[in-house]
Design a protein that fits this description.
By secondary structure, the protein is mostly helical. It has one domain. Helices cover 48% and strands 0% of the residues. It is globular and about 45 Å long.
Length: 93
């Protein structure tokens, strides 16, 4: 794999770290490849590249809105999803 560094907002950093923890707790099969923030970043890049033909705009906000199916009215809080509800949705949770 090639190395590429990127700067992320603090809320993205926190949400990404917490999401990795939630997904790790939800795992049914243990002992497979480790889930990391980098795993999720690579998935996000794959999704962005898959939707590249939808990209339009001049700013980060405009570009983000152009590729999201339902852009939120605004980004709020450290997490963009309900971590407690996500954690409760795990098998046996």
């Amino acid at each position: 794999m090639a190395r590429k560094e990127a700067r992320v907002r603090e809320d993205q950093f926190v949400a990404l770290s917490r999401l990795v923890q939630v997904l790790a707790r939800r795992r049914v099969v243990r002992g497979g490849p480790r889930l990391t923030e980098n795993t999720l970043i690579r998935i996000g890049i794959d999704l962005l590249l898959e939707r590249a033909n939808r990209l339009s705009g001049d700013t980060e906000v405009e570009l983000r809105a152009s590729v999201l199916d339902t852009p939120p009215s605004r980004w709020s809080g450290p997490a963009l999803f309900d971590l407690d509800a996500a954690d409760d949705a795990r098998p046996g949770g």
